[in-house]
Each structure stands twice: as structure tokens, then as C-alpha cells.
Amino acid sequence: MASETYDNGSYWFASLDELKKPEAPDQLPNQVDVAIIGAGFTGLWTAYYLKQASPNLDIAVFEANTVGFGASGRNGGWCMGWAMGIEEMIRQPDQVSAGMAIARAMEDTVDEIGRVCQAENIDCHFAKGGTLTVATRHFDVDQMQANLAVYRKAGFSEDDFIWLDEAESQQRLNMTPNYGAIYTPHCASIHPARLVRGLGDVLRRKGVSIYEQTPVTRFQQGKLVTAHGNVNAPVILRATEGYTDTIKGEARKLLPLYSMMVATEPLPDTLWEEIGLKQRETFGDRRRMTIYGQRTLNNRFAFGGRGDYLFGSKILSVIPTDDPQLDAVERTLRELFPMLEGYKVTNRWGGLMGVPRHWRPSVTFDQKTGLGSAGGYTGEGVAASNLAARILGDLVLENQSSVTELAWVDDTARRWEPEPIRWIGTKIIRGIGSMADRQESITNRPARFLGGLFDMFYG
User: Fold this and answer.
1) Is residue 210 part of a domain?
2) pLDDT tens digits, residue range 53-79?
């Protein structure tokens, strides 16, 4: 059943010029050429590139709620030229070239999204200011410089990654503590809801049908079953990320993991002079329990951190604003930026991301059955979804291209373990990661035992 809640609770949705109430369709078509499940970034980008390549295709997107209701309209707004799995690949001699191919494609994807936004007049506040990974412990410096050496050996140049010493890093971002940073220009700060909603509007103008309030309950070769009736389609593509468990037969393919965010009131220019982020750079650090932040176009601080997993892959449509995990995110923001004392956090929200068992994206399509999917971005999907959609589109149209040669193709993961094993496993990983981060912040020394355990379980 479709949800009656269509506001996802995020600052991004709250700041839209308009948020229309979605209406369930009076009638669904009997047949379409391509049926796409999910009106987030992956589903909409796939529709966009398929329609661009083959304008006569009859494409329909089926969405359980409203365009961008899920992760696409709630995320941290990082359009980043990187993806899960690249780091591990470039460290293995036999996978360096494959990892670099994905990395270069991701870097190009950041510019591709900017190009499409300009061409289609989508004002998503795109600002390619790059991203900073900050050393917040003394020992981070040596480890990060060692990582930079690995990047150089793999083939990255100073145009891709550079080291900023303590003074240079603090000039860009006055975070406490800050002992230096790795900077890459391959990232843009965006307003994710404006991008996903704008993309939906573009598709409608191009003749793509988007059926909101139309949850898909199951699908099989040639047929889609929805709450409002069945639709026949020779090509059916799933783009559901953290909501994949809601479809019969798709359970445990992706783990629905929560991420939490807060946003401040607009901050005065004098305070931003003190904080930095003049180019609207995004930023994070090396802690295991990931954090991420950006400066919005209207001078708010948007900041987030990884949340929890709920037993049985339970899905909450909207995160309560008094959730204790949101308290932890706000507390971290204020610890890193003590100059925010006296300024209000006005928005608190969270949402799902999709995590595959092998922790990296994948794209698959079977020409015989017409069934395909893309996803598994593990919280890094703003740009990765665009690349995955272009891969999926080329696979559907049987176009051999540079992107269809990437290692994401058919790199499908096994399903997650049944309960209570996966709940226990996620609790162990999160608990060990939190303890290791806390120990390192207190001792300013690497938590070798806990860190090793975390890497073992995480891997």
C-alpha cells in the first residue's frame, strides 16, 4: 500500500519551491516498452538516458510514494567522483586497471551531471568545490599520506588528489581538530531534492510516464504487479535501493541501513569566514562511523552520519526528529565546530540507503528475461547512480561502450544472512567501529585490535 506521507522530513524537501501531493493514477497502461521500479536517481537517470538514445521507447516509472522520497531526496548532497570498492581495487595489482577505469568514469560523471543540469535547466545548486578528507587525529597524517602514495602508484596525479598541510587545510575548513587533509576536486555540492525532482519534471516533458503512489509488490519476466493492477513489459528494471525488501522475492538483496542528518539555520557570512568552505567544498574525516558535511547555497550547515539497522530490515518512512541518533549527529557537528554555539539546528531527518553484501555497486541485465537492476551504492549514490544508469541503459539497448566494460557489470552480491544473524552482525560491526573511533579520539593512537576486528567483519 502506498504511504500517506509524502514529505520525507528532510531539509531538502522542506526547502523546495513546491511539494505537490502525489496522486495515485486512475488507470495504468496495459503494456509499456520499459518499466522501471523506483523514482529515485537510478530509476530516473535510467529513463533519461534510454529516452535520449531511443526517443520512441514507451517508458514508465513506478514509484511507491513520490519522486525522490527515498535516499535521493534525503542524502548529504555529495556528487562525488568516487565509489565504494575503488579503494580496495587499486590496492590489488591484478585489479588496479579495473579500479582506475571506474574511478575515471566516476570523475567524468560529476561533470556529466553538471552538464545535464545546465542543458535541462535543473537548478540543483551545483557547485564543484571538491571534497576534503580531514585528519582529525595526529596519526591520521602518516596513514593518509601513505594512502596518497598508493593513489600515485595506481595512476592518480596531483590534479586528482593533493595533500594540504595543517595551515592550508585549516584555511579551507576551520574544523577542530584539523591536522591536514587530502583534497580532490572531483566532487560537487548539490541540493539533492532539487536534482531528483527537477529530473522528474524533465522526464515528464519528454514523454516518460511517472506513476506515483503506485508500489510494485512483485515482478517476473514480462509482468509487473502493482497495487493498482498489472502492467506488461518486455523490459523491467529494479532501482529500489534500501526499499528492495518491500518487493516479493527480492528480500535480503540489499540491507536497508539508516543515515542521519541535521541542518542549521542560515549562518551569517562572518561566521562562514571563520568556518571556511568558500567554494562549498564537502568534507569528512577518517572515522569508521562515517560523517559528511556541506555548506548549502543559502549558508546552512548540512551535516550527517551513519545510522543503524533495524531488526528484520524494518523500514521507517520518516525518522522521528527526537531520534537519539540525530542527537549524536548534532553533538558531533558542534564538537567539530564549537563556533556554532548559539546557532540553531532547524532540521533533523534520516533515511535509508541500500547496502549489498559485498559493499560495492553493481549493474545487471539479462537479455533473455528482460530483467535488470542497478544499485548498492552504500550511501554514495548521487553520482554513482548516474553512471550505473548509463551502464544499464547501454545493456538494455545492447550498446557496447566503455561503461559496459566496467567491473560493476554483473558483479552481483550474494544475499544477506537471515535474521537474527544479519542484525547481530550489523550490531557487532557498528559497536566495534564506534569503540575503535572512541578509543582513538581519547588516546590519539590507532586502535589496532578493534580496528583490525572492524576491518575483518566489515570486509
Assistant:
1) no
2) 999 999 999 999 999 999 999 999 999
For residue 32, being part of any structural domain is answered with: no
**Could you tell me which residues are beta bridge partners of residue 59?**
34
pLDDT digits (tens, 9 = 90+) for 189-212: 999 999 999 999 999 999 999 999
Residue 378 CB neighbour total at 10 angstroms: 24
Please give the residue range of the domain that contains residue 155.
131-184
C-alpha cell belonging to residue 200: 522528474
β-strand partners of 371: 236, 366
Kindly tell me if the per-residue pLDDT of 278 is higher than 60.
yes
Asked which of 161, 184, 207 is the last residue of a domain, the reply is: 184
Q: Is residue 428 part of a domain?
A: yes
* CB under 8 A, 24+ apart: contacts of 449-458: 451/288, 454/288, 454/429, 457/425, 457/428, 457/429, 457/432, 458/288, 458/359, 458/429, 458/433
CA–CA separation, 357 vs 349, rounded Å? 26
Residue 425 has pLDDT above 80, yes or no: yes
Give mean pLDDT, residues 323-346. Answer: 97
- Please give the full DSSP string across 118-150, using - where no structure is assigned: HHHT-----B---EEEE--SHHHHHHHHHHHHH
Within a domain: 53: no
Boundary residue ending a domain (184, 215, 249): 184
The structural domain count of the chain equals 2
* Structure-block grid coordinates of residue 279: 567554494
